[in-house]
Amino acid sequence: MTGLLEGRSAIVTGAGRGIGRAIAEALAAEGASVIVADVGASIAGDGADATPAREVVAAINGKTGKKAIAFTESVASPGVARLLVEMAVKQFGGIDIVVNNAAILRDAFIFRADPRDWDAVIRNNLSAPFYLINAASAAMREQGKSGRGGKDGYDWGRIVNIVSSAGLYGNLGQAAYASAKAGLFGLTRVAAMDLQRAAITVNAVAPFARTRVTDIIQPANEAQKTYKERALKIGAHHVANLVTALCAPAAKGITGQLLGVRGREVFLFGQPRPVARIEVGAPDALAGDLVAKLAGQFTDLTTDLEAFNTEPLV
Questions:
Q1: Confidence label for 83 from pLDDT (cuts 50, 70 and 90)
Q2: How many domains does the structure of the chain reveal?
Q3: Among 9, 67, 137, 181, which one carries the catalytic annotation?
Q4: For position 1, what pLDDT does the model report?
Q5: Of these residues, 131, 154, 169, 177, which one is catalytic?
Q6: How far, in Å, CA of 309 to CA of 313, rounded?
Q7: pLDDT by residue (tens digit) across 85-99?
Q8: Burial class (CB in 10 A: 0-12, 13-18, 19+), 14
Q9: Could you confirm whether 169 is annotated as catalytic?
């Protein structure tokens, strides 16, 4: 490793397992001090277990010295998010990198979904990242005024939100999860705009890798079975590689972007922009015009599993 992130301090949520763990380990390997934030809940958000976070901290510190500490409270409240940022500042002298990776999953078809499950997923997968960005970006801006990072101006601030292709394409039975991830990309765009003058970058990454989510997929057809088999081949270290790159000094000009990573492939996603225009008429005429003039450009209902059901580069 090159010491690319020496002197930086990072918070990675959901870092006790899978992609979050790979990211935390990669950042630490490049010199960053890392708070491994993970309550240790099930994929549905139930229970708590400090063991995964502590195991990751032990693994990191066994290789890099005292570069990591654990945080095992849920960040899904403004007060706890502030405590987490304060912990980074107290223990490491500041906060430079935030990776919002923690997510829970409570799937159900829209007509069977429990509103309480919706609330829990939105709170954990969307509100918690907002709380953490809100607290951390305020600290980063103050660091810019106090000279952290050197006399040339603070440009260490990096925020990476882990989104999902489900939030871009949609997927059957994932109303809450897809909505939260789509909202997280909207948050990415606005945060990038709000923090641009402070030289703090904010980007979104849609990962394709083996996780607890892919492990629990119960294929309903041959296509889903093939998708799962391919996904299980892809290591989380590829995601960590991209996130680390976005935190590097050379990435200071990359912000507000939506990237995907699948093994050795990195995708730059387009973002929603108008693709066609017609003049408005009366409702009956307008409906007819929409079909006659625009139907050829309508976006189909392909799920994310179908869209990426090809062999990955691993």
A1: very high
A2: 1
A3: 181
A4: 65
A5: 177
A6: 12
A7: 999 999 999 999 999
A8: buried
A9: no
Q: Phi first, then psi: give them for residue 139, nearest 5 degrees.
A: -65, -40
Element (H, E) at 182: helix 175-195
Task: Please name which of 307, 305, 280 lies closest in space to residue 293, comparing C-alpha atoms.
Answer: 280
Q: Report the predicted TM-score, pTM, of the whole model to 2 decimal places.
A: 0.96
**pLDDT above 90: residue 230:** no
Candidate list 164, 169, 179, 227, residue with the active-site label? 164
> What tens digit of pLDDT does each residue of 112-171 get?
999 999 999 999 999 999 999 999 999 999 998 898 987 778 999 999 999 999 999 998
Whether residue 18 is contained in a domain is answered as: yes
Within-domain flag for 136 = yes
pLDDT digits 0-9 by tens, 165-184: 999 999 899 999 999 999 99
CATH of the domain at 191: 3.40.50.720
Question: Which residues are registered as beta bridge partners of 108?
Answer: 174
Question: Does residue 296 sit within a domain?
Answer: no
User: Is residue 162, in this structure, part of any structural domain at all?
Assistant: yes
Q: Is 131 a catalytic site residue?
A: no
What number of other Cβ atoms are within 10 A of residue 131's Cβ? 22
164 is catalytic: yes
**Nearest to residue 167, comparing CAs of 220, 103, 89, 72?**
103
